[in-house]
Amino acid sequence: MNIILLGAPGAGKGTQAEKICEYLGIPAISTGNIIREALKSGTEMGLKAKSFMEAGQLVPDEVVIGIIKDRLKEDDCKNGFILDGFPRTIPQAEALDTMGVVIDKVIDIEVPDEKIVARMSGRRVCGNCGASYHLMYKQPKVDGVCDLCAGTLVQRKDDHPDTVKERLTVYHSETEPLKDYYSKQGKLRIVEGQEEVSDTTALVYRELGE
Ligand code: AMP
Predict the structure, then answer these.
(1) Confidence band for 106, pLDDT divided at 50, 70 and 90
(2) Residue range 2-26+79-208 in CATH 3.40.1280.10
(3) CA–CA distance from 56 to each of 27, 33, 43, 119, 149 (Å)?
(4) Dihedral sign (CA 64, 70, 32, 101)
(5) Ligand 1 test: best mutation among 59, 67, 172, most atoms within 8 Å of CB?
(6) Which residue in 10, 100, 139, 190 has the most C-beta neighbors within 10 A?
(7) CA 55 to ligand 1 center in whole angstroms
(8) pTM, 2 dp
(9) How far apart are CA 37 and CA 206, in angstroms?
(10) Region for 85 from its dihedrals, namely left if φ exceeds 0, alpha if ψ lies in -120 to 50, beta otherwise
(11) Is the CB–ligand 1 distance for residue 193 below 6 Å?
(12) For 125-169, what is each residue's pLDDT tens digit?
Protein backbone atom coordinates (compact mmCIF):
# COMPACT_ATOMS: atom_id res chain seq x y z
CA MET A 1 0.00 0.00 0.00
CA ASN A 2 1.26 3.50 -0.84
CA ILE A 3 0.29 5.91 1.90
CA ILE A 4 0.64 9.67 2.43
CA LEU A 5 0.45 11.15 5.92
CA LEU A 6 -0.80 14.71 5.87
CA GLY A 7 -1.13 17.11 8.78
CA ALA A 8 0.38 20.19 10.32
CA PRO A 9 3.94 20.06 11.64
CA GLY A 10 3.68 18.53 15.10
CA ALA A 11 0.40 16.70 14.44
CA GLY A 12 2.17 13.41 15.08
CA LYS A 13 2.78 12.24 11.51
CA GLY A 14 6.30 10.99 12.27
CA THR A 15 5.19 8.88 15.22
CA GLN A 16 2.28 7.39 13.28
CA ALA A 17 4.55 6.76 10.28
CA GLU A 18 6.84 4.67 12.52
CA LYS A 19 3.84 2.66 13.82
CA ILE A 20 2.51 1.92 10.34
CA CYS A 21 6.03 1.06 9.19
CA GLU A 22 6.36 -1.60 11.93
CA TYR A 23 2.83 -2.85 11.38
CA LEU A 24 2.79 -3.15 7.60
CA GLY A 25 6.52 -3.70 7.08
CA ILE A 26 6.85 -0.89 4.56
CA PRO A 27 9.36 1.98 4.86
CA ALA A 28 8.43 5.37 6.31
CA ILE A 29 10.03 8.10 4.23
CA SER A 30 10.42 11.51 5.84
CA THR A 31 11.75 14.29 3.62
CA GLY A 32 12.45 16.29 6.81
CA ASN A 33 14.70 13.48 8.12
CA ILE A 34 16.47 13.11 4.77
CA ILE A 35 17.16 16.86 4.66
CA ARG A 36 18.38 16.93 8.27
CA GLU A 37 20.69 14.03 7.48
CA ALA A 38 22.05 15.90 4.43
CA LEU A 39 22.55 18.98 6.56
CA LYS A 40 24.52 17.00 9.14
CA SER A 41 26.78 15.48 6.53
CA GLY A 42 27.23 18.89 4.89
CA THR A 43 26.11 17.90 1.39
CA GLU A 44 25.27 20.53 -1.22
CA MET A 45 21.56 19.73 -0.90
CA GLY A 46 21.78 20.11 2.88
CA LEU A 47 23.41 23.52 2.55
CA LYS A 48 20.75 24.65 0.06
CA ALA A 49 17.97 23.59 2.44
CA LYS A 50 19.45 24.98 5.67
CA SER A 51 18.23 28.58 5.61
CA PHE A 52 14.70 27.63 4.51
CA MET A 53 14.39 24.98 7.16
CA GLU A 54 15.69 27.10 10.00
CA ALA A 55 13.30 29.93 9.09
CA GLY A 56 10.33 27.53 9.16
CA GLN A 57 9.85 27.82 5.41
CA LEU A 58 9.50 25.13 2.78
CA VAL A 59 12.54 23.96 0.90
CA PRO A 60 12.05 24.60 -2.87
CA ASP A 61 9.89 22.03 -4.65
CA GLU A 62 12.59 20.90 -7.09
CA VAL A 63 14.91 19.96 -4.22
CA VAL A 64 12.38 17.79 -2.34
CA ILE A 65 10.93 16.31 -5.53
CA GLY A 66 14.47 15.20 -6.47
CA ILE A 67 14.90 13.60 -3.03
CA ILE A 68 11.65 11.63 -3.34
CA LYS A 69 12.32 10.57 -6.91
CA ASP A 70 15.62 8.99 -5.83
CA ARG A 71 14.25 7.46 -2.64
CA LEU A 72 11.23 5.78 -4.26
CA LYS A 73 13.53 4.03 -6.72
CA GLU A 74 15.10 2.05 -3.87
CA ASP A 75 14.28 -1.63 -3.51
CA ASP A 76 12.51 -1.44 -0.16
CA CYS A 77 9.73 0.66 -1.70
CA LYS A 78 8.50 -1.98 -4.09
CA ASN A 79 5.81 -3.34 -1.74
CA GLY A 80 4.65 0.09 -0.64
CA PHE A 81 5.76 3.06 1.44
CA ILE A 82 4.56 5.75 3.79
CA LEU A 83 5.33 9.36 2.88
CA ASP A 84 5.69 11.54 5.97
CA GLY A 85 5.98 15.24 5.14
CA PHE A 86 5.73 14.88 1.37
CA PRO A 87 3.94 16.23 -0.59
CA ARG A 88 3.61 19.61 1.09
CA THR A 89 2.53 21.66 -1.94
CA ILE A 90 0.27 21.07 -4.94
CA PRO A 91 3.26 20.98 -7.38
CA GLN A 92 4.82 18.24 -5.22
CA ALA A 93 1.60 16.18 -5.40
CA GLU A 94 1.47 16.74 -9.15
CA ALA A 95 5.08 15.56 -9.41
CA LEU A 96 4.09 12.23 -7.79
CA ASP A 97 1.30 11.87 -10.35
CA THR A 98 3.72 12.67 -13.17
CA MET A 99 6.15 10.03 -11.86
CA GLY A 100 3.31 7.52 -12.15
CA VAL A 101 3.25 6.89 -8.40
CA VAL A 102 -0.19 5.60 -7.41
CA ILE A 103 -1.26 6.64 -3.94
CA ASP A 104 -3.81 4.39 -2.22
CA LYS A 105 -4.68 6.40 0.88
CA VAL A 106 -4.01 9.83 2.31
CA ILE A 107 -4.40 10.00 6.07
CA ASP A 108 -4.78 13.54 7.37
CA ILE A 109 -4.11 13.89 11.10
CA GLU A 110 -5.96 16.94 12.38
CA VAL A 111 -4.82 18.81 15.49
CA PRO A 112 -5.83 22.41 16.37
CA ASP A 113 -3.05 25.02 16.08
CA GLU A 114 -3.06 25.86 19.83
CA LYS A 115 -2.36 22.24 20.69
CA ILE A 116 0.38 22.04 18.08
CA VAL A 117 2.27 25.00 19.57
CA ALA A 118 2.03 23.45 23.04
CA ARG A 119 3.05 20.01 21.77
CA MET A 120 6.03 21.18 19.77
CA SER A 121 7.63 22.90 22.71
CA GLY A 122 7.91 19.41 24.28
CA ARG A 123 9.38 17.73 21.25
CA ARG A 124 12.99 16.47 21.40
CA VAL A 125 15.09 14.70 18.82
CA CYS A 126 18.25 12.65 19.04
CA GLY A 127 21.19 14.77 17.87
CA ASN A 128 22.85 11.60 16.63
CA CYS A 129 20.27 9.34 14.91
CA GLY A 130 17.28 11.71 14.56
CA ALA A 131 14.78 9.56 16.52
CA SER A 132 12.01 11.72 17.97
CA TYR A 133 10.64 11.89 21.49
CA HIS A 134 8.26 14.05 23.48
CA LEU A 135 8.52 15.20 27.08
CA MET A 136 4.86 14.22 27.64
CA TYR A 137 3.79 11.79 24.94
CA LYS A 138 6.84 9.72 24.11
CA GLN A 139 9.41 9.85 26.85
CA PRO A 140 12.79 8.21 26.47
CA LYS A 141 13.66 5.52 29.04
CA VAL A 142 16.40 7.78 30.44
CA ASP A 143 15.86 11.58 30.54
CA GLY A 144 17.61 13.36 27.67
CA VAL A 145 19.10 10.17 26.21
CA CYS A 146 18.07 8.36 23.01
CA ASP A 147 16.71 4.82 23.55
CA LEU A 148 18.12 3.66 20.23
CA CYS A 149 21.69 4.97 20.16
CA ALA A 150 22.25 6.72 23.56
CA GLY A 151 22.72 10.05 21.71
CA THR A 152 21.79 13.33 23.43
CA LEU A 153 18.24 14.62 22.91
CA VAL A 154 17.95 18.23 21.74
CA GLN A 155 15.25 20.67 20.68
CA ARG A 156 15.25 21.31 16.93
CA LYS A 157 15.77 24.96 15.98
CA ASP A 158 12.60 24.83 13.90
CA ASP A 159 10.61 23.65 16.94
CA HIS A 160 11.11 26.98 18.73
CA PRO A 161 7.73 28.76 19.23
CA ASP A 162 8.23 31.61 16.69
CA THR A 163 9.37 29.20 14.01
CA VAL A 164 6.46 26.89 14.82
CA LYS A 165 4.03 29.77 14.21
CA GLU A 166 5.67 30.46 10.84
CA ARG A 167 5.51 26.75 9.95
CA LEU A 168 1.79 26.70 10.78
CA THR A 169 1.15 29.73 8.55
CA VAL A 170 3.01 27.99 5.73
CA TYR A 171 1.08 24.78 6.40
CA HIS A 172 -2.30 26.51 6.09
CA SER A 173 -1.42 28.34 2.89
CA GLU A 174 0.71 25.75 1.04
CA THR A 175 -0.11 22.29 2.38
CA GLU A 176 -3.75 22.39 3.45
CA PRO A 177 -4.98 22.73 -0.17
CA LEU A 178 -3.76 19.13 -0.61
CA LYS A 179 -6.76 17.96 1.41
CA ASP A 180 -9.01 19.16 -1.36
CA TYR A 181 -6.66 17.71 -4.01
CA TYR A 182 -6.84 14.21 -2.54
CA SER A 183 -10.46 14.48 -1.44
CA LYS A 184 -11.39 14.98 -5.11
CA GLN A 185 -9.53 11.73 -5.87
CA GLY A 186 -11.54 9.95 -3.11
CA LYS A 187 -8.34 9.12 -1.18
CA LEU A 188 -8.54 11.45 1.82
CA ARG A 189 -9.25 10.00 5.28
CA ILE A 190 -9.41 12.36 8.25
CA VAL A 191 -8.24 11.29 11.69
CA GLU A 192 -8.63 13.54 14.75
CA GLY A 193 -5.33 13.45 16.66
CA GLN A 194 -5.96 12.10 20.17
CA GLU A 195 -4.17 12.82 23.46
CA GLU A 196 -2.83 9.26 23.56
CA VAL A 197 -0.63 8.21 20.65
CA SER A 198 -2.09 4.68 20.72
CA ASP A 199 -5.64 6.05 20.33
CA THR A 200 -4.59 7.98 17.23
CA THR A 201 -2.85 4.87 15.91
CA ALA A 202 -6.05 2.84 16.33
CA LEU A 203 -7.97 5.42 14.30
CA VAL A 204 -5.25 5.47 11.62
CA TYR A 205 -5.34 1.65 11.30
CA ARG A 206 -9.11 1.76 11.04
CA GLU A 207 -8.83 4.19 8.12
CA LEU A 208 -6.21 2.00 6.48
CA GLY A 209 -8.67 -0.88 6.74
CA GLU A 210 -6.25 -2.94 8.84
P1 AMP B 1 9.52 17.98 9.01
O2 AMP B 1 10.50 17.25 9.83
O3 AMP B 1 8.74 17.07 8.09
O4 AMP B 1 8.61 18.86 9.82
O5 AMP B 1 10.35 18.93 8.03
C6 AMP B 1 11.21 19.92 8.54
C7 AMP B 1 11.48 20.98 7.50
O8 AMP B 1 12.06 20.39 6.32
C9 AMP B 1 10.26 21.72 6.98
O10 AMP B 1 9.87 22.77 7.83
C11 AMP B 1 10.78 22.21 5.63
O12 AMP B 1 11.66 23.31 5.78
C13 AMP B 1 11.60 21.03 5.16
N14 AMP B 1 10.76 20.07 4.40
C15 AMP B 1 10.49 18.77 4.72
N16 AMP B 1 9.70 18.20 3.80
C17 AMP B 1 9.44 19.15 2.88
C18 AMP B 1 8.67 19.19 1.69
N19 AMP B 1 7.97 18.12 1.26
N20 AMP B 1 8.64 20.35 0.98
C21 AMP B 1 9.34 21.44 1.38
N22 AMP B 1 10.07 21.47 2.50
C23 AMP B 1 10.13 20.34 3.25
Answers:
(1) very high
(2) no
(3) 26, 15, 20, 16, 28
(4) positive
(5) 59
(6) 10
(7) 11
(8) 0.87
(9) 32
(10) left
(11) no
(12) 999 998 989 988 889 999 999 999 999 999 988 888 888 888 999
